[in-house]
Each structure stands twice: as C-alpha cells, then as structure tokens.
UniProtKB/TrEMBL annotation:
Protein name: DUF1573 domain-containing protein
Annotated Pfam families: DUF1573
Domain of life: Bacteria
Coiled-coil ranges per UniProt: none
Keywords attached to this entry: Signal
InterPro entries the UniProt entry points to: DUF1573, Ig-like_fold
Range of residues in the leader sequence: 1-25
Keyword Protease: no
Organism: Cyclobacterium lianum
Keyword Nucleotide-binding: no
Amino acid sequence: MNRIPMKKLLIFGLILTLSSVLAVAQEKAADGPVITFEESSKDFGDITQGDKVENVFKFENTGNAPLIISNVAATCGCTVPSWPREPIAPGKKGEIKVSFNSAGKMGKQNSVVRIYSNASEPIEKVSMISNVLPKGGR
C-alpha cells in the first residue's frame, strides 16, 4: 500500500488552510462602499484672472454598502466644493460640484479637493487645473 508521508500531508493541509484564509480576506476587503469617479480631474486650460469656473465630478457607489461622505475639503479658499449630505446607496450615483475663483491668482493652478468618506479608500482626491492669464492677456 502506498502511503503519503505525514510531512507532505501536513504541508498540503497548511496550504489549503492558507488559501481559504486569503480568499475570505479578499472577499472582506471588497465589502463596504466604494466611490468610483467618472473623472478625477478637469483641465480648463487658459482662463483670465477673475474668471470663475466650475465642474461637477460624478461618481457611483460601486460597493455593497451605503456611502457616506463626511467632508470635502479644498486646498484654498478660492475653491469651494458642495456635496451630497445623504448616504449614497450601492449602485446609486452622486455629484460633487467644485467652483474655482481665479481672482488674485496667476499662472498654473491645481486646485485639489479631498473627499473624506466611509469608502474602502477613505480619502479620494479630485482636481481642477487651469492656467490663469492676466486680464487682456489672451
């Protein structure tokens, strides 16, 4: 009768157990809300100093639990975000509206907005890019 050595059997059992643990860990990592943006940046190109531009960043909760956005913060007072205060159900869409006021700004601008939520990635970023030219400089 051909016997499998105990050492090989033990190693096989250990590998099988580890595979099961890893599969469960990956499944758990996918649990919860996931924020998925259609686009994460908008480039306005050249704008004139004093111009106000805005963009709507559309997203979807591609996870399996309600998405709650707790805060949205801009890098400077020249950039103002607005966002949904109610939970976004799985499969539903939402929008974050961002306005940028170029008054007092010159040259290349990259306004970064951070989105804080209960998503699997708790801090996401979107940005608005522009090149501010002096008035009459176009």
